[in-house]
Known about the structure:
The chain is mainly alpha-helical and 328 residues long.
Amino acid sequence: MVSIAESAKLKARILADVYGHVLDRPVVYTQGVSLTARLQLSALDCEYPDPKAEIEAVTADYVDNPDAVFAPSDGTANYAGVNWASLLADDARYRSLLIATADRFMKRDDDGFSSILDRDFRVEDMFFAGTILQRATELTGDASYAGLAADFMLECADRLLQPNGLYWHCLSSPYFWGRGNGFAALGFAETLVGYTGTERERLVARHIEHLAGLKAFQDPESGMWRQVIDDSGSYLEHSSTSMIGISIALGINHGWLTKNDWGEVLTNAWCGAADGIDDDGGVRRVCVGTGPLESLDDYLIRDSVTGRDDRGGAMALWFAVEMMKSGL
């Protein structure tokens, strides 16, 4: 029987052959995450060819012309698409790009709220902010980056986390969207990787409150989560499962979660996700791009993609890499 670690390595190699080889304009997280995951995979798997030269070629135009990376209409989903720059930060151009991107989050309105984070408190921003800001703190030693992320995570929890332990998509869409809960979980986890401030215990507690809610709704047969988390008739959705799985794996790998408490949940999630990754790098049932919707029915009928898909493939690759680190 193939071990969890071996299964993760095999799936990671399949996915890395397909994802993380391009970075189109506009830059967006769905492709950027794959570049990050391929760099992480090469550090873990000595038999996987080092992709650094290829990724440097793919990203050269962005680091050579940093003022042209983002268009005026770009937003947080685009900014999150450069988190790979932190792994190439021995080159000053990559370091500068990552920090300049983080600085976009640090601009404040007169009331002190970040100028680019959505005042409707969309859960997407939790990941988009957390993944860039914690890396900026790691590179610079400036705790204010991760501090902004932490403050935003806690405010989102206060506004969006419901008594059942699940997140609304945003204030104007009070529905428990699957990938939305993945964004929330992953935003907290990414923030915690880089945060050492006074609110750390509160961050961990609110994060675990959410994970406990998700655990209650994990499908017992597949180990996956659904397009609408609390609706048993909603389809099993791949990207939410990967993102929630990454969050739990990060917690175990960085020490704020224990294997005793979360290892089984994580193992079941990985088995469900792995079963939905085919030998050509396709993934099964990934919800299409989704902004806030007007009704629960809109989420329930939202279309999904089966096959090669940057959004689902990127998160599946990252999940596989974190599973390789988990020791399960």
